[in-house]
Amino acid sequence: MTSTDGKRRPGPLAPGVNMPPPVTPMKLGIISDTHGFLDPRVEKIFAGMDHILHAGDIGNPLIELELKFIAPVTIVLGNTDLGLTFKETEVVVLGDKKFLLHHIVNPRELSEQMEVRIRRERPDAVIFGHTHKKFAEMVDGVFFFNPGYAGKPKFGTERSVARLHLDATGIRHEFIPL
């Protein structure tokens, strides 16, 4: 479209074409395998987070309350969370990204049930725990992420949590040792 001063200016969008909504940057705290122990450093590490995802084996439901004092939280059941009322799988949209949260996931050998769920939900990221090992890798176009083990200190066991940064460039991660 040309304006009266002779310069080209963008014209209106064609009918039915909408501009994509602007991406609102978000920061997420990611934690798993607390097994009833919340390291006191987590409050400071997750300060300023927009949301916290706990990938199971929370151990003690009071940890949910402690995390909620920091930011809204989504939690899934782990294999040791007997009697707790969390769901086995959660799907949550944060920013413009969809996250599937499930405790036991093997990114390289997905269970049939998990394959079906991922195909149906089409998440940008799958957040999981269980292995007590950090993991951050794209597999078949999906970002699989495990923040590692955040429970009580054990001799020789590496402990960590993580932060995810969501913005127009995608998802960036950082692991924080405990």
Query: Uncertain segments of ≥5 residues (pLDDT<50)?
Result: none
State the assembly state of the protein chains. single chain
Number of helices: 3
Strands across the major sheet, in which order? 3-2-1-9-10
Q: What is the CATH topology classification name?
A: Purple Acid Phosphatase, chain A, domain 2
Q: How is the main sheet built?
A: 5 strands, mixed
Number of discrete domains: 1
Helix and strand arrangement:
Elements: E1 26-31, H1 41-45, E2 51-54, H2 62-68, E3 73-75, E4 89-94, E5 97-102, H3 112-121, E6 125-127, E7 135-139, E8 142-146, E9 160-167, E10 170-177
Parallel strand pairs: 1-2, 2-3, 5-6, 6-8
Antiparallel strand pairs: 1-9, 4-5, 7-8, 9-10
Give a verbal description of the structure.
The chain is an alpha/beta fold and 178 residues long. The chain has a single domain, classed as 4-Layer Sandwich (Purple Acid Phosphatase, chain A, domain 2). The protein is built from three helices and ten strands. It has helices spanning 41-45, 62-68, 112-121, and strands spanning 26-31, 51-54, 73-75, 89-94, 97-102, 125-127, 135-139, 142-146, 160-167, 170-177. The strands form two sheets. A five-stranded mixed β-sheet has the order 3-2-1-9-10, with helices on one face. A hairpin with a 2-residue loop joins strand 7 (135-139) and strand 8. The model has no long low-confidence stretch (mean pLDDT 91).
